[in-house]
Amino acid sequence: MATFAYVGRTRSGAVKKGELSAKTRDEAVDQLRKQSVVVTSLEEKKGGKGGFKLSFGSGLTDKDLVVFTRQFGTMINAGLPLVQCLEILSTQSENKVLRETIGEVKTQVEAGSTFSDALRRHPKVFDDLYVNLVHAGEVGGLLDTILTRLAKYIEKAMKLKGQIKSAMVYPATIMGVAVVVIIILMLFVIPIFAKMFLELSGGKVALPGPTQLVIDLSNAFIAYWYIIFGGIVGTIVGIKKYYGTVQGRMVIDKLLLKVPVVGDLIRKASVAKFTRTLGTLLSSGVPLLDGMSICAKTSGNKVIEETLFNARTSISGGKTIADPLAASGVFPKMVTHMIAVGESTGALDAMLGKIADFYEDEVDQAVASLTALLEPAMMVFLGIVIGFIVIAMYLPIFKMASAIG
Q1: DSSP string spanning 174-200?
Q2: What is the pLDDT, as a whole number, of residue 153?
Q3: How far is residue 355's CA from residue 270's CA, in Å, rounded to a whole number?
Q4: Residue 60 in contact with residue 95, Cβ under 8 Å?
Q5: Which residues contact 55 (CB under 8 A, 6 or more apart)?
Q6: What is the distance of C-alpha 60 from the center of its chain?
Q7: What is the pLDDT of residue 239?
Q8: Taking the mean position of all CA atoms in its chain, how far away is CA 230?
Q9: Binning pLDDT at 50, 70 and 90, where does residue 202 land?
Q10: 3-state secondary structure of 118
Q11: How many CB atoms lie within 10 A of CB 126?
Q12: Which letter, b or e, does each residue of 59-96 get, where b requires 16 or more Cβ atoms within 10 Å of its Cβ?
């Protein structure tokens, strides 16, 4: 979204100045036209505090969105007018980005836009899932119910995301500590030992193989640290750039699904997210094909995304949901069987909710299994690496002590 500064005239001839957010100039002009403002000047603002925030993310957390959605649903349920709800929430929200966005949504609603169309103008804050559910609530006259359901969905998605992150925190911390310890040993400790050995032996006695290896690695690290560091950074950047391509995402996501334990966790999390999202969309009145598109876009894994888009194509051709999902081999058989039962009984949304509940529990167990597997593995790794360095440094001392004895 870009920020435009405008000057225009109202129907009464009064000059009106201000700023608004829009994707394009045409969209900005359209917004002003709905407000009965004839544009005389329209310029896009470059840089600035707001532009910086929008270019690097919305600055909004899931928790902020949950609080807004719950409060908004409660107000609508209490019978408050839509614009008044937006006015209240725009003044009391603690998040600046959300506060400004709600204010812009309020202005667009007052100008004649529907609530869902106004939300659609802010894709970095309100995604397709959010907008489509709100649209379904507007059409069905169940906006308060939909908002409550949406808040519960976001909370469950937050919990699932938190479970995945918690599984990664421990190994990342241990690896970080291990890297720092090894760097300190290589840069500061080993050179002291190397100098001491050289002085004691006068350079005439050969050091044990492990000791010489560690000293050589230390010397190489000190001499070429910038090349090593540059190589690591270059590799990370290269992988990120490759992952940014369609082929790269497909290759890496496919490999991740095949990694033992980790792949199982990703698959279960993807199933839980897909079934929870589609179940919420269908129970809120969103058409199946639209729901499949939204689920594919928000899947987070290119393999799952392609599978869901292919399934959507098959469904539009007259097939059931379960058949293309089963043929893909990506989804577990239990999931496709339960979806088939849900379709045949006409209770697909309820069945999807049950599958989501089951697989969210499975994610809990998978996280526990991953943590239980990683803890001893990381300890063994640290013990071997640091133990090898310590023993290598003490071998010459043992050798000299034996010679003196």
Answers
A1: HHHHHHHHHHHIIIIIHHHHHHHHHHH
A2: 86
A3: 12
A4: yes
A5: none
A6: 13
A7: 92
A8: 27
A9: low
A10: helix
A11: 23
A12: ebeeebbbbbbbbbbebbeeeeebeebbbbbbeebebe
